[in-house]
Amino acid sequence: MKLRAAYEKISGESVKKEQLKSLIVQLEARREEIIREINELRRKLKVLKHVSVQEALKMNPKIIIKETCFAGVTINILGEVYKTTFELGPRALNLQALKELKYQNRGY
Questions:
Q1: What are the 10-residue block averages of pLDDT along the chain, 108 residues in total?
Q2: What one-character-per-residue DSSP string does 47-68 give?
Q3: Which domain holds residue 91?
Q4: CB within 8 A of 16, min separation 6: which ones?
Q5: What residues does 6 pair with on adjacent strands?
Q6: pTM of the full predicted structure?
Q7: 76 and 51, same structural domain?
Q8: pLDDT at residue 9, rounded to an integer
Q9: Helix extents (H) in the chain
Q10: How confident is the model at residue 7, as a pLDDT?
């Protein structure tokens, strides 16, 4: 850490050195506190994303292909992405159907 290096270089008064040491200790404690806060926010964000997906699934999002969906079209439902490799005829695709289509064509 740069502050620690600066602390080691100070050859002046012991009062300045002790003040700098105290400041370094305070900053390191604050850094640890911020890291804990970030980790907690990440955990909360993960929970919120999960809840958001669960709520969206309750609405049963789907794409309705009235006529033809041509090869090369990218379909995205709740982050599940599938790039069509062949024409799809009239049909509805919900998230589960999209996943099945995606993995069926990959050979899984």
A1: 64 69 88 96 94 82 92 89 90 88 73
A2: HHHHHHHHHHHHT--EEEESS-
A3: 60-108
A4: 10
A5: none
A6: 0.49
A7: no
A8: 65
A9: 2-9, 14-58, 95-104
A10: 63
How large is the angle between the packed helices 14-58 and 2-9, nearest 10 degrees?
A: 180
Nearby residues of 44 by Cβ (< 8 Å), 6 or more positions away? none
Running DSSP on this structure, what letter comes out for residue 69? B
d(CA 47, CA 25): 33
The amino acid sitting at 59 is M
At residue 56, φ and ψ (nearest 5 deg) are -65, -40
Answer yes or no: do 9 and 35 share one domain: yes
Q: Of 60, 66, 74, 70, whose CA–CA distance to 91 is shortest?
A: 66
